[in-house]
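#onboarding

Welcome to the new folks! Below is a worked example of what a typical request in this channel looks like: someone posts a single protein sequence, and someone else replies with the predicted structure as tokens. Don't worry about understanding the tokens yet, we'll cover that in week two.

Example request:
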Amino acid sequence: MELFIIYIYINSKHNNYNQIYFIQNLHFWKNEMPENKVIKYFSLIEAWAWCDICSEMVNIRVNKNEIKAGLKMSIYTKEHKHINPYPDLEDTDDFSGQEHTIYLYINDNYDITGVKSFFGDSPSMSEVGAGIVEAGGEVRIPIVVKEVSPMSVQLGMLSIDEFKLLKVCDGMNSVQECAEISQKPIDKVEEMLVKLRKKGLVKVIKRTSG
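Example response:
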């Protein structure tokens, strides 16, 4: 924890970022980590996101124009491939020294609403919803089967909330995780999924948690 805070401070000095901002938020960070954090600057955001594979906070900078261009009334996703430069060499189960991906979900307020960490192109089916559902419980994973354009909202075919929900039905999230990322109550998400299934836009895969 202390090393992480020192790194932020040195990094902010090196890049001539707002030192007052750092001092004001130091106590907050120290007591709240490893919650994901975002420092918002004029033209970019500096995200600190927890990587389950590294067991470390990962620093990712994203230009605000990049986010604005990718939002399209929805949630912006940022994929960041990296390795842990200091893996635990004595831990035979530590594979963080191998390249893996941290995947961020960013809303229109430039806040991180969800993070995924995985090897390869996407999480395995057994990893989706892990830790949320008890062993033996049912995990439901909504997946988009038909892409729609933002024009569907303007034409009244979908609500903006339904359009945003489609963005996170990417096969990497359970229904509960979709609710958390889209920042909507679970019952509201369930209602929207019923409508989206009837419109032939999503399907829901069910599996038993290991």
